[in-house]
Amino acid sequence: MSAEIICVGTELLLGDILNSNAQFLAQQLAQLGIPHYYQTVVGDNPQRLKQVIDIAASRVQILIFTGGLGPTPDDLTCETIADFFGVPLVESAEIIEDITAKFAQRGRVMSPSNRKQALIPQGAEILPNPTGTAPGIIWQPRPGLTIFTFPGVPSEMHRMWSDTAVPFLKSQGWGKEIICSRSLKFWGIGESALAEKVSAYLNLLNPTVAPYAGKGEVRLRISAKASNTKAAEELIAPIEKQLREIGGLDYYGADDDTLASVVGELLRSSGETLSVAESCTGGGLGQMLTEIPGSSDYFWGGVISYDNSVKVRLLGVKPEDLEQFGAVSATVAEQMAIGVKNRLKTTWGLSITGVAGPSGGTDTKPVGLVYIGLAGSADEVRSYECRFGAMQTRSFIRHLSACTALDNLRRTWLIC
Amino acid sequence: MSAEIICVGTELLLGDILNSNAQFLAQQLAQLGIPHYYQTVVGDNPQRLKQVIDIAASRVQILIFTGGLGPTPDDLTCETIADFFGVPLVESAEIIEDITAKFAQRGRVMSPSNRKQALIPQGAEILPNPTGTAPGIIWQPRPGLTIFTFPGVPSEMHRMWSDTAVPFLKSQGWGKEIICSRSLKFWGIGESALAEKVSAYLNLLNPTVAPYAGKGEVRLRISAKASNTKAAEELIAPIEKQLREIGGLDYYGADDDTLASVVGELLRSSGETLSVAESCTGGGLGQMLTEIPGSSDYFWGGVISYDNSVKVRLLGVKPEDLEQFGAVSATVAEQMAIGVKNRLKTTWGLSITGVAGPSGGTDTKPVGLVYIGLAGSADEVRSYECRFGAMQTRSFIRHLSACTALDNLRRTWLIC
Question: What NCBIfam families does the record tag this protein with (chains A, B) (predicted)?
């Protein structure tokens, strides 16, 4: 028994979007232990879609469709599937009611074209979509063949998959031999350097350990196969412990942890508070911190001092130091950190000032040069110079700056 | 005549990597005007790969493979293709020489396993790989069928595609008819409502018009087929003009435009400046604005007033109004906007305060309720109430909040 992922959408054939849905579903199928040997992408074209269904239905037992469930005429997935199996579409009162309510919540009236989204093959079960108007289906058009449809919008698809498809597949006996993975996250060390440090672990068979590069960080994925989650976790735990010891301070968290969530937990545990002063990141550090629910317990806010006048007026940076050392300097980073800490009356003040590019770099202050300031509880202030490289993109330099600022606070907190 | 993209690799089936190669090749095929209706992903398994070749060779005339050209035993693409067509592999002295030289360059000796990479089907042409050890091939195993193979490493594949595949395809007469696309972007209207407004256009044949949903926004993609870029643009231009007129104020930009870049251009054109005061977005609005290079010309900074004390201390919000109306209220949004505008001495002040969730919602102030304040040039201040819906994620509510704030400034600027 195996599954095939079928992604429907002309935008995929034109290369307009990256097929992240196939990756998500592939990971999910692996976790449930459902074999999956093929992925197919096809456009919004009924003839070709039918041909794809014909091939897939002859070689696998579970067909998972994404895309083509929208309200517009080129959204044809559901009706084409029904047509292929010679089953009529019926309008679901339940879906009509749900869509009407969702429009009402936003103060709008349902468009007539949304009615199309309430048509499902006779005998299919509805796969509710809590966050959008396009519901999916679970349907057995014939014995031994199960069809799932999901909208193409990734966030809607993820939620529907976890809420309904996973419980359904488990009820069918899947997930008995499962693969559990744990991703250990490291900041401040490169992929090859970490791989060399843990080389003895990279040939293990169960669990396996594989390094891969994230966005500015490195991860080690430990994957164990076992009959249940507990047994898999028991295989993972001792290896995780050893890898974390090898990683030392470079290890910062696992799985859903982010540098912002880890820093947040440290501050919460000690009853300390944080404020930020941002120049080149323009709010990105604050955004990372406040992406964590409950961050108001320790994060009080900050100042986006993009223009120098704001650094002076709202943070108390000395105009003569701006003049002498420039906005991108250790001195200004330190004054920004002290300024925001004192004005917002927090335990810590964290600042960033740098050259994010693509223009604005000079020989002495190239693109990628960033100073991070950290004013701490003992009225001490430090600064850190980072050189992220002039070949990096503006967006990546900003991301690295915000993450490195959080990482400096994390290391300082842990060492003190 | 059409092409199919076939990506080979078990790592794709496990979801370990995102299939960016398929997106790159799809864009390239579109630019050359080569129709492409299918993409297939299959693992490093000869039987299944042969089945995929069989299906593809029966429906298209150009097969483009990526992946499975490496030196390890699980890299099977080239030998499986040769085997399928019953043609022997021969060792290429040219490739051996090239790989040996590349190893020598790095002071290394070629591994015996790399010898495998020099085996190509008899009669195939070599597609050189300037940056890696895995060459590709161009091969006509039978009349009317052309096969390309590329390594899976994106940077190597891109280079080989441009250096050799594109000139080859052009020499075969491709690229005479090209496809150009333009994506029009709309904010403040749903996909179905926009599709109804432009329904007359959705049946056009050249250019075609197709709606699709982005992250909180809707796009109309206009695609034209023509003999050259200029001719395609001439087909697109009148349709674009009409669609923009129908879209009215909901249309905000095209292709790489973002709400932040569009607002930035308006401010730059009038020499006006902007500051922001953010509560629930925590810096996300500032981050969006500063993602645009050169935004320092009009964006001066702002205050992240996550905690109420910061709203009072740095923005001058009245404590009694916070008490009476709550932090999430039109009154507070307006005071935040005025406060930041006056303190940073900018033309406009834009503020956001809301309930991003997942907790913190009440019956009267549910998750998804957001107030946007806008203090303008004529010392006027307005506020806007948004209800994004309690079922949305924290991250999406924050994204919608920042975009809607920018959109309100954009509309106000255009109307005034």
Answer: cinA_nterm, molyb_syn, PncC_domain, PRK00549.1
